[in-house]
Amino acid sequence: MTKTLKTENLDADKIMATNNGNFFEDMVVEILSKFPVKSLLRFRCVCKSWYELFESPSFISKHLKAGNSNTRLILRYVDSSDDPEFPRLRDCLFLDPTLANISLEEDLLLLMPIDDHLRGPFEGLFIMFIGGDEIALYNRATRDLKFLPKLTLIDNLESIYTIMFGLGLDPKCNYYKLVYIVTYHDSELGEVLNDSRQVFIYSFSDNSWRNFQGFEFGTYDLNEVLDCTYHNGACHWLVPFGPFHPLCCHYVILSFDMSDEVFEEIQGPNCLLEISPEHTVFGLYNDSLSFLVFDERESCFDIWTMKERYHWTKEFSTTPILAVDAPIGFWKNDTFFIGSNTKELLLYDPNSEEIIDFQHKGCCFTIFFDKESLFTLKG
Predict the structure, then answer these.
(1) Is 123 left (phi over 0), alpha (psi -120 to 50) or beta?
(2) CA dist., res. 258 & res. 231, Å (int)
(3) Which of 48, 195, 223, 376 has the fewest C-beta atoms lying within 10 Å of its C-beta?
(4) What is the C-alpha to C-alpha distance for residues 182 and 160, in angstroms, rounded to an integer?
(5) 3-state SS class at 224
(6) 3-state secondary structure of 313
(7) Cβ-count burial of 139 within 10 angstroms (0-12 exposed, 13-18 middle, 19+ buried)?
(8) Both ends of the chain: CA-CA distance in Å?
(9) Residue 273 Rama label (left phi>0; alpha psi -120 to 50; beta)
């Protein structure tokens, strides 16, 4: 006798809970989490419980992690091939998730409703800065566009020097938050005002900003900060501790817990004390906070991961690779991107030691994961 699962009895909160679901409900959720967004948007009409399930932040987060096979590569870099005197910033979207056919690519900016100061995507959402006090979010999978309420800045827009942000799920409250950190400068004196930074937290649950107080940023140089890495309920930034120096700088990880709303400093592996900033990249490798480090003396790459809190382990070192000089970022299936000393982008597979030349020449390469997200920006 076959047991039939009644979809109308599925409760979104119940089946996403860790211990309360049953085998059949868990199987349905697991299977649904593998479907692309386009299919799930159609499945919302099946029953009310499925509609509620797909709106659940817990399922949205699970779907993001499960959709790794459909994740596409976005490459952002400065291209000077057409005119060396006037280089331009390019955003390339590679359409083949496997990268078996790297010739299939599109200009990402042509697919965006707004192309002002585009950042991301992060957790499936693009962030666009319009001026400095207005922010728009865009979900390319659902075509949702949302303008957030304007910020109340302590200084004028011309005084904004750098913007740093983080986006991720608050696992305790089960909704998403956006952290926005503004650094100002005095244009007349030409000085960065490290003591006048503002931190804002935007809550998607009530569509509002609030000021965050209680953290001193004086010891961190946030002027050279790269984009945020979200992992296990916290946003992480790799930041210089003390004044930034292009040849040697002490980097630490600045972490912000999205639930407790607490900043924390995490030390990286000791090898970072001897590495120049351009020879290290911070990100996620096999779902762990990790560093990809180029050892210039040995001409090889090391990967360090933090599988246990505050404890770093060297996962492995590659064999020497000739004519390379910089790590670019982690990709899927243990592979990672590196840069050649002739400014070309390469994909390296440490298992087969195969190198793929992407036929893109430039500088300031940055890679992003274009994940499909169910996150709704309506309402």
Answers:
(1) left
(2) 10
(3) 195
(4) 7
(5) helix
(6) strand
(7) buried
(8) 45
(9) alpha
Sequential DSSP letters for 53-77: HHH-HHHHHHHHHHGGGG-EEEEEE
Segment 21-64, tens digit of pLDDT: 576 788 889 999 999 999 999 998 888 889 999 988 889 888 98
pLDDT tens across 317-361, in order?
999 998 998 999 999 989 999 999 888 999 999 999 999 998 888
Predicted TM-score (pTM) of the model is 0.84
DSSP assignment of 151-205: P--SS-GGGEEEEEEEEEEETTTTEEEEEEEEEEEETTTTEEEEEEEEEEEEETT
What is the residue-wise DSSP string for 70-125? G-EEEEEEEE-SS-TTS-EEEEEEES-TT-S-TT-EEEGGGG-S--TTEEEEETTE
Residues 6+ apart with CB under 8 A from 4: none
CA–CA separation, 102 and 92 (whole Å)? 11
Closest CA to 201 of 214, 211, 192: 211
How far apart CA 65 and CA 41 sit, in angstroms, is 18
Q: What is the residue type of 335?
A: T
